[in-house]
Amino acid sequence: VEISGQAFNSYILLWDFVDLIHPQLMLESPQEVSCFSFNSTQTHLVVAGAVNGQVVLWDIKAAVAALVRRQHRSSMARAGGGGSGGLAAGDDDDEGRPPPVKPCAISYLDATHKRGVADLTWLPPDSQINWRGQFLEKSLCEGPTHQFVTVSGDGQVLFWDTRYADIAAGNLPKVGRRQGKQDDKPGKDGKLPQVLWLPLFRMQLKRLEGVGELSLCRVC
Fold first, then answer.
1. For residue range 110-157, what is the model confidence (pLDDT) as tens digits?
2. Roughly how many angstroms between the first and final C-alpha of the chain, as a whole number?
3. Are 12 and 24 in contact (CB under 8 A)?
4. Which residue from 143, 158, 165 is spatially nearest to 205, judged by alpha carbons?
5. CA-to-CA distance for 50 and 56, rounded, in angstroms?
6. Residue 75 — pLDDT band, cuts 50, 70, 90?
7. For residue 2, what are the CA distances in angstroms to 5, 6, 7, 78?
8. Cα 79 to Cα 47, 74, 186, distances in angstroms
9. Residue 33, CA distances (Å) to 7, 37, 120, 142, 215 in order
């Protein structure tokens, strides 16, 4: 009752079997996470679905690099008979925990699932779609994958692209449509309008009887 209606942060903790007391990385989320997945071709990208229907994206490349440096200093200190491992300022907090990794992108709440995300999966690199739901030519799918799909109890299947800022700016016309806000002039503070992370393509599944929505729970 005390925390009802209050904002709070949730975390994904990444562990190492060598140290089961301290998590190696902490990914901070503005909402409780119901599912998450690593990008198979860009392993530093992690995407998660939240209980409020939003999707959250993290880039852990810098955090992993800091973790490697921290482990290297610790091993060097042990080899030299040191104690603390020579942790640099800012690498850990007062309790020895790594600083949480902030999201680099959060989907626009009004354009996402109406219920919690039940499951998500990354699309293979050779199977990407455009904003019409059509598969792209193989020549346009070379390189790592950038798209994933989510399902929810609201009956929606949403396709997402992590390059949403480039799509909104009109840099990927064969993938998605340019956002109209990108044509606006900078505001009084000199900043451009915020780029919203919207689904690239959506499908709404209905029951065969024609009444009600299908509650989806898995992607395969």
1. 999 999 999 999 999 889 999 999 999 988 888 899 999 999 999 999
2. 38
3. no
4. 158
5. 8
6. confident
7. 9, 8, 12, 45
8. 38, 9, 55
9. 14, 11, 12, 31, 19
Alpha-helix runs per DSSP H in 87-196 = 164-168
Question: Of 98, 127, 103, 124, nearest to 36 (Cα)?
Answer: 103
C-beta of residue 37 within 8 angstroms of C-beta of residue 119: no
Stated pTM of the model: 0.83
Neighbour tally for 114: CB within 10 Å: 12
- Phi, psi angle pair for 55, to nearest 5°: -115, 145
* DSSP assignment letter at 146: -
> Within 13 Å and on the Cβ side, how many CA atoms surround 155?
10
Q: Are 91 and 108 in contact (CB under 8 A)?
A: no
The Cα–Cα gap between 141 and 126 comes to: 5
Amino acid at 41: T
> What are 37's two structure tokens?
């997945």
